[in-house]
Amino acid sequence: MQIEYPNFKFDITQKSDTSRARVGVLSTPHGALETPAFIFCATKAAIKGASPAQMKAQGTQIILSNTYHLMLNPGGALIEKMGGLHQFMGWDGPLLTDSGGFQVFSMGHGSVSQEIKKNSRDTRPKTVLKISEEGVTFRSYLDGSLQVLTPERSIEVQRQLGPDFVVVFDECTPYHVDKSYTEKSLHLSHRWGVRCLQEFEKHHTGRQALYGILQGGVYPDLRKIAAEFVNEQPFFGYAVGGSLGENKAQMYDVVAETMSLLNPTRPVHLLGIGGVKDIFAGVLQGIDTFDCVHPTRLARHGGALIKGGDKEKNREHIVLSNQKFQYDERPLDETCACETCKTYSRAYLHYLIRASESLVMQALTLHNVAFMNRLMAAIRQAIRDDRLEAEREAWV
């Protein structure tokens, strides 16, 4: 099978001499973005706490929406009738949709964070009824209706949504399942991947590009099988997914092993990773794009990302609800020129949280978005200047 992507291009403009880090330009029908880049999550076709215009004003290049949520509400057909996601939500830049495969994992097994923290308090009913060769049968979290998501259906809905980048449907296995299950799931995902390619090719107009996903859990031999599969298929790019381990060290090892096996000419996305330390680790291994809900979710809980982090608490952010900020006249981050840092003091933001004023969510969201975009711009320049390690010391 041969699939051409005439309206897409990935140009690597500079490579590091000491690592796999690289700077590139990813061209799409809705404009180009510089990589490494961060993709913000507009899960239900909206960034919580910021408009598309505000996202652009903070330097955002690309956003992501979720196929699973949008197929349930309002539905792919309605969004297609409204002109696709770009027109529906008022975003004119590059856009990616995931396949719904991660929801197979989260609905059937719980979230990654719950797994790593061994959190047994999640009492939500698991809505996945069956995972079969055909696809996944589950009940909608909205109304309990019976739903079937197949590789063909996932690609169809993503075609209706109209993003630039489309992702194949897969099963994302958790860390706690054994190797036998992981291997069976890997081969199932590969068969689903071939079906995704076939469905994609049937209606391909050159307006979308397809990413293949690499699974295989923490097992090097399975990750090698996954890499061989995606290298042989006509995917535009790759998305590294699945369980990456039970701790950060193991995650970095899995990513490094996976990246060593991939065709270096294609763009690579790392799914669901957004911590500052993790981004630097991924960039050093050649990752081009990242996505995570972390920056905007953190803002909704009163957290602000700070360059250099909160050394006292050994974390990347400060929590403005903390009493120590009641009389703090400083901006959130004295190195940041975003509207929030130019306008509000930590004391005022602390007050807004305590007063339950919604303005604070927007203010912190815009700051965290600006922070992530500033971080990625700094990383790109550091790669060009061959000083990535020094830049990491300034941010982590």
Q: How many DSSP H or I helices?
A: 16
Q: Supply the CATH architecture of the largest domain.
A: Alpha-Beta Barrel
Strand content: 15-25%
- Based on CA atoms alone, the radius of gyration comes out at 21 Å
- Label the structural class: alpha/beta
Round the mean pLDDT to the nearest integer and report it: 93
What's the level 1 CATH class of the largest domain? Alpha Beta
- Give the name of the CATH superfamily of the largest domain: Queuine tRNA-ribosyltransferase-like
Sum up the overall morphology in one term.
globular
Poorly predicted runs are 111-120
Distance between the termini: 44 Å
Q: Residue share in helices?
A: 40-55%
Overview features:
16 strands, globular, 396 residues, alpha/beta, TIM Barrel, eight-stranded parallel sheet, 16 helices, 2 domains, three-stranded antiparallel sheet
Describe the 3D structure.
The chain is of the alpha/beta class. Helices cover 41% and strands 19% of the residues. It folds into 2 domains: 36-292, Queuine tRNA-ribosyltransferase-like (TIM Barrel, Alpha-Beta Barrel); 306-385, no CATH class. The strands form 4 sheets. An 8-stranded parallel sheet has the order 6-5-4-14-13-12-11-10. The chain has a 3-stranded antiparallel sheet with strand order 1-2-3. The chain has a 3-stranded antiparallel sheet with strand order 7-8-9.
